[in-house]
Amino acid sequence: MSLRTKTAALAVVAALGGALAVSAAPASASVGSGYVSGQGSINDDWGDEGLLGAHYHAHSNATALWQAVLWADGKLPYSGIDCWFGGDTVRATQAWQRAHGLDDDGIVGKNTFGKNDSKLSYQRNEGNKDVFKYDGTAHDLWIERTEGGGAHYIRVNTSIGYKAASYTSASACG
């Protein structure tokens, strides 16, 4: 094979590799909508969520939702639900990831968040909201979702009430 043919072949391989890398980007439709959200069955809502971590939506209601999951599974005290993805949340996330056989990088991505889809169960409808339960190992966590699909809502502080699990707002921890 000539040098010119090898160069052309490498260019094609590089172009294909770049195209595959672009098409293999993780889905983050929920981040695009601004909220942790889902449609249809609750059991596939969290597997396509965006990243949460010390450098990803670190001060948000979405972080509070993840912290509530950590509390429900006995990895974080209730007082640790503060809408900030700080050191305690990173360590609790790493412990949770190890306990579930995942890479313990302390970042909540589709594998970490999605691991919880099977622990969600529909409970009832209340007006324009569907009520779901996360069956934690230490506590149950109640979550609301817009009827038929949409944003997830959490309640951390009873005086504040339910707030949408936004990636850009931290109003749930007041």
Task: Walk me through the topology.
Blueprint: H1 3-23, H2 29-33, E1 37-39, H3 61-72, H4 87-99, H5 110-114, E2 120-126, E3 129-135, E4 140-146, E5 149-154, E6 163-164
Antiparallel strand pairs: 1-5, 2-3, 3-4, 4-5, 5-6
Explain how this protein is built:
The structure is a single chain. The chain is an alpha+beta fold and 174 residues long. The chain has five helices and six strands.
In angstroms, what is the radius of gyration?
19 Å
Give me the secondary-structure category: alpha+beta
Shape: globular
Query: What is the quaternary state of this protein?
Result: single chain
What string gives the helices and strands in order? Answer: HHEHHHEEEEE
CA(first)-CA(last) distance: 68 Å
Percent of residues in helices: 25-40%
Number of helical segments with 4 or more residues: 5
Tell me about the largest β-sheet. Answer: 6 strands, antiparallel
Total beta strand runs: 6
Low-confidence stretches: 1-29
Provide tags for this entry.
alpha+beta; 6-stranded antiparallel beta sheet; 18% strand
Q: Can you describe this structure in just a few lines?
A:
This protein has 174 residues and is α+β, with helices and mostly antiparallel strands. The protein has helices at 3-23, 29-33, 61-72, 87-99, 110-114, and strands spanning 37-39, 120-126, 129-135, 140-146, 149-154, 163-164.
